[in-house]
Amino acid sequence: MGQGHHTEQEQRIHLATLDELAVAFPNGLADKHIHAVGAGGSGISAALRLARARGAIITGCDYANTSQARLLAAEGVPIALGHDPAHVAEADLVVTTPAVTFLDANHPELAAAQARGLLVAQWQTLLGYLMRGSVGVSVAGVHGKGSTTSLLGALAIAGGLDPTVEVGAVVCDWDGNVRLGKSQYFINEADEFNYNFETYHPRMVLLTEVEYDHPEFFPSYEAIRDAFVGFLSGMDTAPHTKTTIDPTLVLNGDSPGCRDTLAQLEGQNGPWRGVLRTFRVEGDYDGDLFGRPADALATDIQVGAETSFTLHLHGQELGRVTLQTPGRHYVANAVAAVAGADALSVAPETLIPALNAFGGLKRRFEIIPDGDRTFIDDYAHHPHAVALTLTTARLRFPGRRLIGVFQPTLYTRLYRFLTPFAEAMARSDLAVVVEIQPSRERDTGLIHGEDLVKAIKAQPAWGDKPAYYGGNFAETAALLNKLRQPGDVIAVMGSGPVNQVITLAMEK
Question: Which of 12, 334, 492, 507 qualifies as a FRET site for 246, CA 20 to 30 Å off?
């Protein structure tokens, strides 16, 4: 996390900076004991795996036995259920997540670590430390970060670059959220919340989308845009001999927010002096960018029983791509990855076979058959993403009843985006709202899931279709089984563990 951006709660706990970690551990982390508070998160678990690969001794704890906590335990990492100051007794470094420090500024393990004089760091700072000495390639943006990071990683692997890749989700082809490589390249997913990405100083940035998100943290679009500007300002632009790659920005030419971010960056720092590459999806933006066509472009897009497109690179048609993960938005992710891979000098002839073979991510339009109905497990948690998931489901399964099941994350987000969420859910034939996932917030009575049900029913396009409040996971699963009709397509969406609804419903 960047200095100067700590919340009031976090200021009570001194969170180590990247420089402090570098001073404390000048020779790396081999044989150093790292204890992780909140170890079961998708991002922190990836950083722990990377640190373990560098020789660190890892222990962890979490309040819940998450899927990532179970995977870490299966890999031989001791993960305790619950918190105890005794956990940090033998540690050399304690790492945690913003969710922990936001919820409990006086967390007993963190307080015990501070009392012992140990450094406490967010896991993003640890990841920034682990990236030192590498040629960093960061994928940033409000949407599509995880998918684009993994796609870029797959293309770089196919091109023989042997990168290390960190993703905040499980990549099906790797059966994990980390891919360990032996080359200088380090590709990572760079999250904007809480200015998390400020500890990364990549040589290349691939920017997928900039629009308003995280209303619980950023008060406005301008605030989140400026966070991206700050991140880009911190890129590695110094001349050096460790890489032949010039500072490179790969930009979504279809995104007004990306174009605005570049304009603000140049307004502060002068014209961009590095390499600028662009990618586009045909028809999403009228006109060329910067007076020239996009470097990577998708045309003739088909989204239905299959998702396919014609790939163009520097004005040359390379051929037809058929993706295993459906959706027009996934076409944009693929073309973004192509633009990034091309900037890394991956041979053009490797691109289409690698895109066709890529197996996708867990919880990114993951299709799960269940007899005469079909579940879709998707991470969508922003109104834009919910709308895209439901639209894609409609195209992928035409003529079938579409049930949208959504768990809002954060009271503040639902409150600020209530109408956009209702508009997005109106793309379904039947809507079910699951109880709100608090995440890093506490319930202050600001809003309830029932309010989203009412807002959906109030949509002019909704008519007299049914919408329900499902309650908790077990109650929602029972409701889905009660409503069951042959041929149902049920899109279960949210960034929390809402996919437990699928497991419970299939158990009957």
Answer: 334
Q: Is the dihedral of CA 238, 244, 246, 248 positive or negative?
A: negative
Which pLDDT score, from 0 to 100, does residue 287 have?
59
- Which residues does residue 276 pair with via DSSP β-bridges, in sequence order? 249
The amino acid sitting at 291 is: G
| 468: pLDDT strictly greater than 80 | yes
Q: Are 324 and 139 in contact (CB under 8 A)?
A: no
Closest among 227, 122, 136 to 189, alpha carbons compared: 136
* Rounded CA separation 59/235 (Å): 32
How buried is 165 (Cβ within 10 angstroms: 0-12 exposed, 13-18 middle, 19+ buried)? buried
Would you state the pLDDT for residue 445? 87
**Residue 61, beta-bridge partner list:** 37, 80
End-to-end CA, the chain? 44
Q: Using an 8 Å Cβ cutoff, are 177 and 169 in contact?
A: yes
Spatial distance between the Cα atoms of 35 and 53, rounded to a whole number of angstroms: 15
In 3D space, the residue among 455, 395, 387 whose CA is nearest the CA of residue 427 turns out to be: 387
pLDDT digits (tens, 9 = 90+) for 268-289: 999 898 999 999 998 765 556 6
What mean pLDDT comes out for the span 258-262?
A: 95
402-406: strand order across its sheet = 366-370, 373-378, 489-493, 402-406, 430-434, 467-471
Residue 20, classed as helix, strand or coil, is: helix
Q: Tell which CATH architecture fits domain 10-123.
A: 3-Layer(aba) Sandwich (3.40)
Would you call 267 exposed, middle or buried from its count of C-beta atoms within 10 A (0-12, 13-18, 19+)? exposed
Superfamily in which the 366-507 domain is placed by CATH: Mur ligase, C-terminal domain (3.90.190.20)
DSSP 56-82: -EEEEEESS--HHHHHHHHTT--EEES
> E strands along 305-365, which residues?
307-313, 316-323
Q: Which fold has domain 133-357?
A: UDP-N-acetylmuramoyl-L-alanine:D-glutamate ligase (3.40.1190)
Q: How does pLDDT run across 10-22, given as a tens digit for each residue?
A: 446 789 999 999 9
Q: Looking at the chain, how many residues does it have? A: 508
- For the stretch 419-459, pLDDT in tens is 999 999 999 999 999 999 887 778 888 899 999 999 999 99
Q: Which has the higher per-residue pLDDT, 64 or 40?
A: 40
For residue 217, give both structure tokens. Answer: 């943290």
| Cα–Cα distance list, 482 to 113, 321, 500 (Å) | 50, 40, 17
Instruction: In whole angstroms, give the CA distance from residue 423 to residue 387.
Output: 8
pLDDT at 443: 85
User: How large is the greatest C-alpha to C-alpha distance in the chain, in angstroms?
Assistant: 66
Query: Looking at residue 119, what is its pLDDT?
Result: 95
